[in-house]
Structures are given as C-alpha cells and as structure tokens.
Write a structure and sequence with these properties.
single chain; 354 residues; mainly beta; 5-stranded mixed beta sheet; 4-stranded antiparallel beta sheet; 11% helix; 31% strand
Length: 354
C-alpha cells in the first residue's frame, strides 16, 4: 500500500508460493527497493529464499545464488553502506559486499546454529546476532564497510582500528572479588590480503617516535584477516622505548629552559613585596618548574628508584596511553594503520590505590 493502508495490493507474484515470509526490509537508500526473505522449514523444504525488488514489489529478483540450501530467517541492510547486506540462516550468517550478487560466510567463532535476528549498530558497524539456543554474539564488522572493489585489488590493506582504553590495574593479576576486570579489552587489527601476500606476516607496534614496542608473528590469508591484540608489550622493547621517550623529554625540557632564559623579559628594578606580608617566604617560587605548563622537572635518580614498581620485571607489560602505528608486512607488501590507547575518563574511588 502507498496510501497509509486505505488500499492493499498483492505483490507476492514472483516470490516462493505458500512459504513463510520471515522478513520484509525497505531499503534506506533507494525508494522502491525492498528485500524479502522466506523460510520453508514448516514445509520440510530447505531452499534459501532471498529476493529484491526495485519497483515497489512489481517484479522480484532472487539473490539466493551462493547461499547454502537452508532456511533464511532474517536480512539486514547496513545503514551506512548501500551494498552491504547480512542474512541469518538456520546454520549461520552470511554477508554480501555487492548487494546480494555474491555471499561470504561469517563463520569465525560462530557455531552452526539458527540465527533468528540481527542488528547493525549504525555508528560503529558492529553486528549483533540473536541465535536460537546459543545466546547472542557480537562481531566487529565495520571494516566490511570499507572493503570496496579498489581495496580488494590491493595486495595488502589495513583498516581503521577502534581505540582501546588503558587501565592501570592491568598486569597486577586478577582481583579476587571483581570479575569484570578479568576480561581485558583487545584491539582487533583487520587487514585485507591478496593471494600474492598470503603466508607469514609480521605486525609491528611503534610509538610516535618510531620506537618498537612489540613485534607479532602472524599469518596473512587471501581475504579478510583479523588479529586480536591484547595490548601487551615486549618487556625489553618497552624498556628501551621508555628510556628513549624519557631522554627526548629531558632534552626538550632543557631546550625549553634555554629558550625561556634567552627570551625572558627584563626584571624590574624594584622588587615587589611578596604576597602575605613580611613573613612570606621569599623563595616560595618553585625554580624547578616551568611556568605556563612547561616540561616538568625530572625526579632525582635516587627518588625515582625509590618510587619504582618493585614487581615491574615480573608483571606483564602493556602499552601506555598514546598513539601507535601498526605496520603489517606480508610477502613483498606492507601497509599500516593507527591504534590509539586512551586514558580512562575516571576510575572508581573505591578501587583507588592511594
């Protein structure tokens, strides 16, 4: 109907007759385009039924080619990518990058179980799956939005990585009463590889100064690849990187101090009375800090050693907050993306170590 339900028209001609209609989805991109899935298991029939119409249901085109013979329960169109479709069947989930012309199985970690519903998160692109008897699943599918024909022609291409949040509790073992700290966040590094780059690969994490924090041997397959990185750092490389960052900051502080001294405004002839009267301490200004938010004065070596973590060499090391480059090399090809480790906005007061 086009008149709010005043009159109805049968548009089922071209669909599978007398089969359960499991979903009707109107396209968010093209008026007149609609998708329909049907399910024949009530009739002991296992054909996959997926149809599209571009003329308000006057004619229908089957999109089932490439799907296995199993009932289709749900179809969703990605709200940000016109050509990206998902279908849930009685044995899993499939994605199409070309609006249903071809289908790819999304089988990594998902059991062969009926998927009765799915939803696509508009902003982040995550796909949430509701199954029959095996709970719910979430897949980080945003890279599929960027998997264009141009990308698939490349030997290697890295996708954007979601930011991760640093937590100072990590590396000190499990909390005996709080369970949710036992599942640390991971960064999912996704890349596309061609057959020419299939084989051994190396992922290298570098900070903004080019210091290497970790090298991860991996395998690049032809197609989509995803590596779940737990944000750990190699202890030896982390020590060297931190020493380099410390040296750079000290050099920057010294250079800034020289500039401040060189371009300092002339001192007045008359020294004003210190605030607070005659009893005020004339040396109240801290000579070791740079006014205006300059570099902090480094701690004396003996005090720094006293405040150092005594279990540093024994505990697991993680990337500190910062922006890192993720370099991926496979075969003769190389690509890179960025990983941001953010500081937490706040931490619960009841867990404060102070």
């Amino acid at each position: 109907t086009k008149d709010g339900g005043a009159a109805w028209k049968d548009v089922s001609k071209g669909l599978a007759p007398e089969r359960w209609v499991s979903r009707v989805v109107a396209s968010a991109f093209d008026e007149g385009t609609v998708y329909v899935t049907q399910n024949g298991y009530r009739n002991d029939e296992w054909t996959a039924y997926v149809f599209r119409s571009t003329d308000y249901g006057e004619t229908w085109t089957s999109l089932a080619k490439g799907l296995p013979p199993e009932p289709v329960n749900v179809l969703r169109e990605d709200p940000k990518a016109k050509n990206l479709l998902y279908v849930g069947t009685d044995l899993g989930v499939f994605a199409s990058l070309d609006r249903g012309a071809t289908w790819l199985a999304m089988a990594g970690g998902l059991p062969h179980v009926p998927v009765h519903d799915l939803a696509v998160q508009p902003r982040d692109g995550d796909v949430v799956l509701g199954t029959h008897g095996r709970s719910a699943y979430v897949v980080e599918a945003a890279p599929l939005r960027k998997l264009t024909d141009e990308v698939r022609k490349k030997d290697l291409h890295a996708f954007a990585v979601k930011s991760a949040t640093w937590d100072r509790r990590r590396g000190y073992g499990e909390h005996p009463w709080v369970r949710w700290f036992r599942n640390p966040p991971v960064a999912k590094i996704a890349w596309w590889g061609s057959a020419a780059s299939a084989g051994p690969a190396m992922l290298t994490l570098k900070d903004s100064y080019g210091n290497v924090w970790k090298e991860i041997p991996a395998t690049s397959a032809a197609g989509m690849n995803v590596y779940e990185y737990d944000l750990t750092a190699d202890p030896g490389k982390a020590n060297a990187a931190e020493a380099d960052v410390k040296r750079r900051r000290e050099e920057k502080g010294k250079a800034q101090a020289e500039l401040d001294k060189k371009f300092a405004p002339p001192k007045p002839d008359l020294k004003p009375e210190p605030a607070g009267g005659d009893d005020a301490d004339e040396g109240s200004g801290d000579a070791g800090t740079a006014e205006g938010g300059g570099p902090e004065k480094p701690l004396p070596p003996d005090l720094e050693a006293l405040l150092a973590d005594p279990y540093r060499s024994a505990r697991t090391r993680y990337l500190p907050p910062g922006t890192y480059t993720v370099e991926i090399r496979a075969g003769k090809a190389a690509t890179a993306t960025t990983l941001e480790v953010k500081k937490p906005k706040s931490e619960p007061a009841w867990f404060d170590e102070d």
